[in-house]
Amino acid sequence: MKIEVLTLFPELVEQVGAFGMPRVAVERGALQLSGRQLRDFSGNRWRRVDERTYGGGPGMVLQAEPLAQAIEAARVAVGPAKVVLMSPQGERYDQAWAERLSREPALILVCGRYEGIDERVMPQVDVELSVGDYVLSGGELAAMLVVDSIARLLPGVLGDEQSAASDSFSDGLLDHPHYSRPEVWRDQAVPEILMSGDHAAIRRWRRKQGLERTLLRRPDLLDSLKLDAEQIKLLREIITEQLHEQEGRT
Ligand code: SAH
């Protein structure tokens, strides 16, 4: 997968490829990441790419021409690619988007700055993605989130292929809790079942924990989910237990 990030701060964005899983992805050749400086396409000796907004008011706008040229140059570099504009007005970026994008051969991520980009560049953009309902001062951090979450999904990057599959959201649910050594830490023991060696029981326990967390913390995730027979059974158990707990309190 090739990713080009169009930005005023290529050094910042490239940092995401220097640590952790994205670094592994780069080292294994699964990810090619580069930042492209928008100022290289300014066409003026001040390397200026922003201008005042028409109609008045405060704030500057990223100009259309340098952006369009940068997109064209990135296309030449990476071949056919989806052009993604990072924008608080975009579709909400989530794990399903990460999975979808991780299957693309190449991506061009456009980072806005100031008040945003000149609207006339929009026909060159395939999709706008938002990382949440808050406003960042630039698209770089958002692009870095996208790169990180995609890098760990690329084939051969996570050591254990299973581990991305069991993460939160990948099956539409939150992940179950995890424990590691020591067996007792500050008077808190690891749940006994995890030490039992009974793999079927452990699997069931984990599924139930994931479901319970989802029900209590993110019930909205359950709306769009098709539960299997075991999950429905587990959910019944969880609800019964929750009701018993409620009754115990009253
Ligand atoms: N005036 C714009 C915000 C501009 S913020 C508006 O209200 O919609 C400057 C740039 O930061 C944006 O162009 C975008 O690239 C990036 N950005 C800000 N918040 C973001 C978010 N939640 N998700 C993705 N990108 C964001």
UniProtKB/TrEMBL annotation:
Pfam families: tRNA_m1G_MT
Keyword Transferase: yes
Main subcellular localisation: cytoplasm
Enzyme kind, highest EC tier: transferase
Signal peptide segment: none
Cellular component, GO annotation: cytosol
Keyword Transferase: yes
EC number: 2.1.1.228
UniProt keywords, alphabetically: Cytoplasm, Methyltransferase, S-adenosyl-L-methionine, Transferase, tRNA processing
Domain tRNA methyltransferase TRMD/TRM10-type, residue spans: 1-223
Family, per entry: Belongs to the RNA methyltransferase TrmD family.
Function of the molecule: Specifically methylates guanosine-37 in various tRNAs.
Self-association state and partner proteins as the record states: Homodimer.
Protein name: tRNA (guanine-N(1)-)-methyltransferase
Encoding gene, per UniProt annotation: trmD
